[in-house]
Amino acid sequence: MYLVWWLATVVVISVVTIFLSEQRTLDPVQNLSLTVTAPAAGGLHDAVRPVDDLFRGITDRGDIVEENRDLRQQIEALEQALAQQQDAQQRVRELEEALGVKQGRPEDQFLAANVIAEDTSGLKRMIAIDRGLGDGLDEGMVVLSRTGSLVGTVSRAYEDFAWVRLITDPESTVNAQVVPASSPQPSPAASDVIIAATPTPQPAGASATATAAPTPAPTPAPTPIPPPGGDQSSLRGVVEGDLRHGLWLDLLPPDLTLPEGSLVSTSGLGGNYPRALLIGSVEAVEQRPQSPFTRATIEPTASLSGLDTVLVLLSFTPARLSDQ
User: Fold this and answer.
1) CATH classification of the domain holding 269
2) Could you tell me which of 145, 162, 144, 164 has the C-alpha nearest to residue 153?
3) Is residue 218 within 8 Å of residue 190, measured between CB atoms?
4) What does the buried/exposed string (b/e) look like for 22-37 if buried means 16 or more CB atoms within 10 Å of the residue's CB?
5) Residues 36-63: pLDDT tens digits?
6) Residue 73 is part of which domain span?
7) Please, where are the H alpha helices in 159-264?
8) Same-domain check for residues 85 and 124
9) pTM, rounded to two decimals
């Protein structure tokens, strides 16, 4: 019985409250309650905001981690594509340079090889290439840079790869010569000079008389100035490797005056290297009073510390191989 009366009372109060709310009779009461409870509600909201942010961070952290993972994968893919593109461009440049060497030496046969390792002992100057006996290589074959400068020789060949001794290795010796300085071109001789004479108009009725143009005095051809230290075409020596200085050009005549920047190439003597392969340029000449010879430091033309692609000269048989 009490339960029935309690339910009936709750229903009546609810109906009356709804009716009064619809008639906006309770608006002053609601405004008063909001005015009283608003500061407390705002303070409570500010107090629980850090906790709410913490829970939001925990729930959103998984999405952030996944998004960062996707971004890292995209960056990695872009970097890999960029590296492949740059490598392809580098390979194209190397092949173009190698093609230029081939066009400059059409009678020779080359084999391109990639550098796959370097000797890190500090006691040698050697590199390994991805060509070997199976590709026609043999010990002693000459190796050039992709621009045609001398790099070294095949020291040891295996079936699939080979070691190359660089010219800067202490055991490397190359018979060399100083490239002769180019002589000035003589001026054209008098007989080679053509002078165009403009005919002078003659008055009417006058006979045309041939007038010979004056013969210019012949211009003497300039005498070539001899290079310092004598005829450089006879300057021959031996290029030796050195761990500290790189390259020496030794066994030069005493009291030699050799201009800085003079080019040094192979002389072909001994038969182990073809003639006229560029080795480097003269940096400085060292005078040694107690030695019967002068020597010079040489800067290699090829960048031996950054080799990527080299050319093995297959068409040249060194004397060391022909004697076997």
Assistant:
1) 2.40.10.350
2) 164
3) yes
4) eeeeeeeeeeeeeeee
5) 555 666 666 667 667 666 666 666 666 7
6) 27-104
7) none
8) no
9) 0.57
